[in-house]
Amino acid sequence: MSETVLRSRSARGSRLGSVVTHAVLVAGAVAMIGPFVWQVLTAFKSQPETASVPPTLLPREWLWSNFSDVFATLPFGQQLVNSLIVAAAVTVGQLAFCSLGAYAFARLEFRGRELLFALFLSVLMVPKQLLVLPQYQIMSGLGLLNSLPALILPGLFSAFGTFLLRQFFATIPKDFEEAALLDGAGRFRIFFSVMLPLVKPALAALAVITVMHSWNDLLWPLVVNTDPASMPISAGLTSLQGQEWTNYPVLMAGALMASIPMLLAYLALQRQFVQGIALSGTKG
Amino acid sequence: MTQLATRPAQQHADARRPSRPRRRHHSAYLFIAPVGLGLLVFYLYPAVSTFALSFTAWGPFGGNTFTGIANYVGVFKLETFWSALGNTLLYMLIGLLTLPFAILFAVLLNREGLHGVTVYRALYFIPFITLPVASGLVWKWLYNGDFGLLNQFLGIFGIPGTYWVSNPTTALFAIGVVQVWSQIGYYLVIFIAGIKAVPKEYWEAAEIDGANGWQRFWRITLPMLTPTIFFCTIINVIATLQIFDLVYVMSASATANPAFSASQSIVSLFYEKAFVEADKGTATALAFLLMLLIGALTFVQFRLQRRWVHYV
């Protein structure tokens, strides 16, 4: 009976409501995206134009030279490549190592499992700044300062990744493994051909989180790689600020180029990003 | 052959099964070895060693001597430590503003039949996925005292602007705002998921009882969301206590920016001590104190949750 009454009442309410809703959401969107738009526009302006009062919205003349100037000032291309290599290596390594460990913790019984797992969890709770000095000494001892392995090595291993994947492995019914065991498959075979495909969504989520962390990380690269040629793009940008601090168009062009790979990744993999965030819950 | 015995399907492999004799898998150690050894070398050993080293004076080439709590006493005597501590706590408080914004947008985006949810979510998410260093640079430009867009905008209303990040009274807030702005998208995603998990019948029942939207929000959505809010508060506090990137990029160095000490965080002070001044004893003590602070504030939050978090 009241079904229709209810619906019409809420429909009337929601028409006004949806105008207000969109108004608030649009205002929010402008605040969120505004700086980014301004960055893009500034990246195309000439330096004198950025100092004009009142400011121009659109560039009087669209200058592409700011983008090439970034490459002239810094080994910017090299740094982009560094970031890509590091992100790819760290992600592949983490997926491989963490999934192996996670599988064992979730599916195999062995002596000391609880203790080992507790040890893994304790790593999760330590802030990474606490580790930076000894990590730096390890890298220095290995003669790896100012090299890409210095950026990659610590990132290959993750207690968080192991924990996340373990939760997924644990929810898979035993039957899948047992069928394979009956067919005479070994543990590694089962892991690769049966279990890994079943946790693909979790692997995708972990990959997204790992790529983002790796791409965005600043403190560790600043510490281990002080040579511009071996820096990732995050650290490279900060040095661009030192050298070109008055030249905002060039700075904005650099900032834009450094952000674009991650933005493209997001557009291509929205679902994995959102799922990764929903699953993660650890990120500064 | 015990593995082949039939038994009811189990949700969790690690559930104890006392009735069945255990089979131990020695291959498990091989599976765990790569990540285990990596964590041991690059995480556990450094953690223990930082703790040990915070009680020593660092020689230039090893050769550390035990000095008891001298490093800690030294830190407490540092004026910059106390200002960095105060700043960091302020960053934390400002950072918490992220959550009400994220909740507001999440609630609006969960309205039934709303168009463009994916577009809005993507737009709100962009600040979170752009490189933090890049965001810091962009905002620094917006904050620029001479040509920054913010001052131009305020000028329209006749409000005098300032040099936002080099004015000691505004620098910290200016940086804090960027932190909030960049994190909203992340928490938005979590809150959207949280609201989706609330059973629809609750709102329908309330609507039949004549509750308006406002009442439904305060009486149903918000209480049902408290576990998510609790989770986000924990994560957010831990993250903002470790703020570094934005401070580093926007506040630059002590010589360049008069507002440096007014906006420096504990981690940026740590970086300064460890890698600019090469004062590693002080740095390790700082790092350890930060961990204690994070631990203490997390503990307090867990204690307080009984008062306000509703679990169904």
From TrEMBL, chain A:
Keywords: Cell membrane, Membrane, Transmembrane, Transmembrane helix, Transport. Its main location: membrane. The keyword Cell membrane applies. Residues 80-269 form the ABC transmembrane type-1 domain. It holds the Pfam family BPD_transp_1. Gene3D superfamilies: MetI-like (1.10.3720.10). GO terms for cellular component: plasma membrane. The keyword Transmembrane applies. It is found in: Cell membrane. This is Carbohydrate ABC transporter membrane protein 2 (CUT1 family). It comes from Pseudonocardia hierapolitana.
UniProtKB/TrEMBL annotation, chain B:
Pfam families: BPD_transp_1 (PF00528). GO terms for cellular component: plasma membrane. The keyword Cytoplasm does not apply. Residues 1-22 are annotated as: Disordered. This is Carbohydrate ABC transporter membrane protein 1 (CUT1 family). It is a multi-pass membrane protein. Belongs to the binding-protein-dependent transport system permease family.
